[in-house]
Amino acid sequence: MAGLVRVCLVVECRSGLVLGCVSVAYEEGECVLCLVKRVFGCGEGDLAQEDKVWREFLWGAIAGAFGEGMMHPIDTIKTRIQSQAILRASQSQKSILQMVRTVWVVDGLRGFYRGIIPGVTGSLATGATYFGVIESTKNWIEESHPTLGSHWAHFIAGAIGDTLGSFVYVPCEVIKQRMQVQGTKSSWSSSVVKDNIRMKPSAQLSGYYEELFQDGCSIYKAHGLKGLYAGYCSTLARDVPFAGLMVMFYEALKELTDYGKQKWNLTHHVNGSIEGLVLGGLAGGFSAYLTTPLDVIKTRMQVQGSTVRYESWLDAVQKIWKTEGVEGMFRGSIPRIIWYIPASALTFMAVEFLRGHFNKELDTDMVQEITTLSIEKKGSIRDVA
Q1: For 146-150, 209-213, 269-273, 355-359, which range has the lowest pLDDT when averaged over its residues?
Q2: What single string gives the DSSP state of each residue in 162-229?
Q3: Neighbours of 107 (CB within 10 A)
Q4: How far apart are CA 346 and CA 212, in angstroms?
Q5: CB atoms within 10 A of CB 249
Q6: Disulfide check for 129: which of 164, 223, 229, 291 has CB 3.0–4.6 Å away?
Q7: Which residues have C-beta within 8 Å of that of residue 213, sequence separation ≥ 6?
Q8: Where are the Solcar repeats (predicted)?
């Protein structure tokens, strides 16, 4: 029998006992744990929205750094391949395998991991804002613009999140890519073109990047904020569509998967981490290929140095198209896809793992702190826990 009763919750906290009273509808025989969760305003496995958003920021940061760290060597190869037209001038350009062999011979294993610290730092910021903003804005966008559709709501939310992260990500990306293309000090001073001028072994070495903070200060002193944010507009032109497309593809693939399960009556439970791994990889691969031309332009503008070859984003598009054609616009697409499929897969897998494990544990810990719950009905109080 349902009725309005007064529920008294005594919560054990580190600071002492806190007494909370609230009136709720209680049905005789209702599960105590279900009642407690209802009183706290959360369902099974769910959290209050504000708490959930902050956790998405944290899980996104961890997942973003994890994905970047795991796939950094492939990103190094992609960056070097896309930068050859600037660094090697008229010399013949190397294939993927030739570039891998060159990096290994010149710099060893360390060469594949040059720039990993600024790379991980930028991914921490981008991952946090990406997943945090998606969680906090997608529902608002759908409610305020009901005719927009859920896919476009996810696209916009992802684009906004990535844009906010770009204020930290772009300077880190500039430093990371300059570290990636330079190799060792000896190779940089003897055989690599610096600012489009081939240096002799005896030439004074400058502009060699080794540490995140030191390199940031060096670029700022030489070029100001413009140097740290080199190619910022082209970065946004690449990352905003990519971020929007990736979350849109991911959510669309999840809906397609759920539809398939219902249509063919598949009752087998698929682990959320595995689902995130597969669907995240597919979403990242599709998005990466479609935005490769934007990535080529961004990379060329960021590594060109003080000798300006491309005056603007549009100028880069025209010159690359005129001299290299479609092949130039999609140069590095294979290593880019090879990088983004596992990187996106690992990122979404990590996020789904953190959501599935720690959200439930933290929610359960909150409920388990309740030591006494008394139900008062018709003037009597009965202890139920």
Answers
A1: 209-213
A2: HHHHHHHHHHHHHHHHHHHHH-SHHHHHHTSEETTEEPPTTSPP-S----HHHHHHHHHHHHHHHHHT
A3: 18
A4: 25
A5: 23
A6: 164
A7: none
A8: 51-140, 149-256, 271-357
Residue 4 has pLDDT above 80, yes or no: no
Residue 374 identity: S
What is the C-alpha separation between 290 and 269, in angstroms, rounded?
A: 32
Beta strands at 193-194 and 16-27: parallel, antiparallel or unpaired: unpaired
End-to-end CA distance of the chain: 20
DSSP 349-383: HHHHHHIIIIIHHHHHHHHHTEEEEEEEETTEEEE
Cα–Cα distance between 302 and 314 in angstroms, integer? Answer: 15
Give the CATH number of domain 50-360: 1.50.40.10
Rounded CA separation 369/372 (Å): 9
**What is the pLDDT at residue 94?**
79
- Dihedral (C-alpha) 159, 239, 151, 50: value to the nearest 10 degrees? -40
Please report the pLDDT score of residue 203 as a whole number. 35
Q: pLDDT by residue (tens digit) across 299-358?
A: 787 777 666 678 888 888 888 899 889 888 998 888 889 888 998 999 999 998 988 887
Please give the DSSP secondary-structure letter assigned to residue 93. P
145 neighbors 199 (Cβ within 8 angstroms)? no
Q: Which two tokens stand for residue 261?
A: 């399960």
- Map tokens 């001038």 to a residue: 89
What is the phi-psi region of residue 200: left when phi exceeds 0, alpha when psi lies from -120 to 50, beta otherwise? beta
- Tell me how far CA of residue 105 lies from CA of 98, 109, 110, 184, 189, in angstroms: 10, 9, 11, 11, 17
CA 54 – CA 203 distance, rounded (Å):
51
- The verdict on pTM exceeding 0.70 is no
In sequence order, the 6+-apart residues with CB closer than 8 A to the CB of 327 are none
Tokens 């906010």 -> residue: 164
